[in-house]
Write a structure and sequence with these properties.
This protein is α/β, with parallel strands linked by helices. The protein has an eight-stranded parallel barrel with strand order 2-3-4-5-6-7-8-9, surrounded by six helices. Strands 10-13-16-15-14-17 form a six-stranded antiparallel beta barrel. The chain folds into two domains: about 210 residues, Alanine racemase (TIM Barrel); about 130 residues, Lyase, Ornithine Decarboxylase, Chain A, domain 1. Helices cover about 25% and strands about 25% of the residues. It is elongated and about 75 Å long.
């Protein structure tokens, strides 16, 4: 039989999370962000759950081609724009919208020969200091684009650095408005955290919101809010089974480095999951797991192919018992991925994206409770 580990993508959960976004976004249309192969879930696997979005956004031309291959004929936005001039040819052929964040990309457009003008999203660096034109450069860049026959509609976009924290979005939003408030064109300003925390505020209303991590069931402002608090459901569950057990006596240790030493007699389960499957090696003792749907904890150091969990207080647990590493147990309990990530001092994004290719993946198209 195959090694007993499986990831499940929950179509109904993705659909429900998109509805959460819509409830917070007012009249704005929603981009479903599927960069990084849909945050590790797989573009083809999430398409059914997210195809009610108004558009899809990603980074790679290859991912855009895959979406068109699935039959998507709506808007597709390249969040980082094109990386070289010849990319514009594929944008023309596939009808892709693309971000412009620097003068060099405007130069590429100016030299591009096309019969169909492009829809572009001009990006402002309002304080994130990654991609985007600074406010003092923004209007001149807009004027350059507006004068090009290769450009059709120009939309305006920025990205908030602190939408998930105490600083919020007010300062950056004020910078954005001051620099382009009277320019025509649709706006897109809110990412996942900004949608949930500020999307219903009429003062920050825009035409498009960019829903990323929220679609996959992770709270973008954890631990201030949990996924449950936002009404989100896990889009992915990672489950494995116990393949061995051990009875530890007081003073005995577990695994490499003997990092966990039993303070009392206890039972442990050896689980068919390790860092080669994408589970974080640096997750410490105490990281939560579900054993047969009941809450328990990781013990000792994570190995390449195995990890160990405490089954001392889990009646009936043994070889074959299900261990939920994150997501929804087959018995109905939920372990939010954010809790696992926080214990490992990382974020849910990284765990999702790190799911290894060797882990089998199935799509549950019926219910989020499977």
């Amino acid at each position: 039989m195959p090694r007993p580990i499986l990831a499940t993508i929950h179509t109904a959960a993705l659909r429900a999370n998109l509805q959460v976004v819509r409830r917070h976004a007012g009249d704005a249309r929603a981009w479903a962000v599927v960069k990084a192969n849909a945050y590790g879930h797989g573009i083809e696997r999430v398409f059914e759950g997210l195809h009610a979005a108004d558009g899809f956004a990603m980074l790679d031309l290859g991912e855009a081609q895959r979406l068109r291959g699935l039959g998507w004929r709506g808007p597709i936005l390249l969040l980082e724009g094109v990386f070289e001039a010849r990319d514009l040819e594929l944008c023309s052929r596939l009808g892709l919208w693309h971000t412009v964040h620097c003068e060099e990309q405007i130069d590429m457009l100016a030299a591009h020969k096309t019969h169909e003008p492009h829809r572009v999203f001009l990006k402002m660096n309002s304080g994130m200091n990654r991609l985007g034109l600074r406010p003092a450069q923004f209007r001149a860049a807009w004027a350059r684009l507006d004068a090009l026959p290769q450009v059709d509609e120009i939309s305006l976009v920025t990205h908030f650095s602190d939408a998930d924290g105490a600083r919020g979005i007010a300062e950056q939003f004020a910078v954005f408005n001051a620099a382009c408030g009277d320019l025509p064109g649709e706006r897109s300003v809110c990412n996942s955290a900004a949608v949930l925390r500020f999307g219903s505020d009429a003062r920050v209303a825009s035409d498009w919101v960019r829903a990323g991590i929220v679609l996959y069931g992770s709270a973008p402002d954890f631990p201030a809010h949990s996924s449950t608090a936002w009404g989100l459901e896990p889009g992915m569950s990672l489950r494995a089974r116990i393949i061995g057990t051990q009875a530890l006596q007081t003073g005995e240790s577990v695994g490499y480095g003997s990092t966990f030493v039993a303070e009392r007699p206890m039972r442990i389960g050896v689980v068919a999951c390790g860092y080669a499957d994408g589970y974080p090696r640096h997750a410490p003792t105490g990281t939560p797991v579900l054993v047969d749907g009941l809450r328990s904890r990781l013990l000792g150091r994570v190995s390449m192919d195995m990890l160990t969990v405490d089954i001392s207080d889990t009646p009936g647990a043994g070889i074959g018992s299900e261990v939920t590493l994150w997501g929804r147990s087959a018995k109905g309990g939920v372990l939010p991925i954010d809790e696992v990530a926080a214990s490992a001092q990382t974020v849910g994004y990284e765990l999702m994206c790190a799911l290894a290719a060797r882990v089998p993946v199935v799509v549950d198209t019926e219910t989020a409770d499977a």
